Amino acid sequence: MPPRLSARKFVLAFLVVIGVTVLVGTKYNLSHLVNKSAQPLVQVFKNELGAQTQRPEEQEEFLDNNIFEEPEKTVKPPERPWFLPDGTIYPTKSKGPPRLFPDQADGDRIYDQLMYMPDDYQGYDSPEKTILLYNGFSGWGQKKGSAAFHECPISRCTLTADRSRASDADAILFKDRVVQPPVDRPMKQVWILYHLECPYHTQSVKIPDSINWTSTYRRDSDIVAPYEYWMYYDPECKALCCYYYFLL
């Protein structure tokens, strides 16, 4: 029966291999082998041997070219808007009429709407707006109250699914289908229809002239709500290099 290596000896051998690798890598600077532009190991030895036999002025030049290299300058990353990770740019009060709807704006309305703040917004001194989710909280991933808006610059909003609030809610948000509330509609109440899918996969609106705002994947919606949103936050970066590897 062949001899077996005990667990203690195996660990000891493993540590020895690691130690030797670190020592060799430290002495001969094996990082040159990893760099794509590195010289062969034999050439590294020749350079070190040549540096020892060179004249003082040649050694100084050798050291300047191989050791005392200036570190790369670090570029401060650009700031990001508040709705991106680590965002620090917050909206300021807008001046003049808002340009947020399809017939008003010609730029990126998703960004403009997320960065909009009314000129009369006074924080906690502003009246709270109630949004009624008429089809319930299912599918929204949110809870009752104002917790969903705590990180929003405009935080004076609250969510409810209580249909008895249909008579005094500031807005009613319908998801996929519209149901007529059994109460009279206030004059200033806004009805919003949210559709994630195309009309072929959703119910038709059976209450004509009832919707004030639409929120769909279409760019001409009042509130554009696509599946995902790609935004460049670094003006120096306009493309991402991708490498594809195929197994033949």
Automatic annotation (TrEMBL):
Entry annotated with the keyword Lyase: no
Taxon lineage: Eukaryota, Metazoa, Ecdysozoa, Arthropoda, Hexapoda
Membrane topology recorded in Swiss-Prot or TrEMBL: Single-pass type II membrane protein
Keywords from the UniProt entry: Golgi apparatus
Record-linked Pfam families: Glyco_tran_10_N
Entry keyword Zinc: no
Cell compartments where the protein resides: Golgi apparatus, Golgi stack membrane
A molecular function GO annotation: fucosyltransferase activity
Name listed for the protein in its UniProt record: Glycoprotein 3-alpha-L-fucosyltransferase A-like
Provenance organism: Sitophilus oryzae
Domain Fucosyltransferase N-terminal: 128-227
Gene Ontology annotations for the cellular component aspect, listed alphabetically: Golgi cisterna membrane
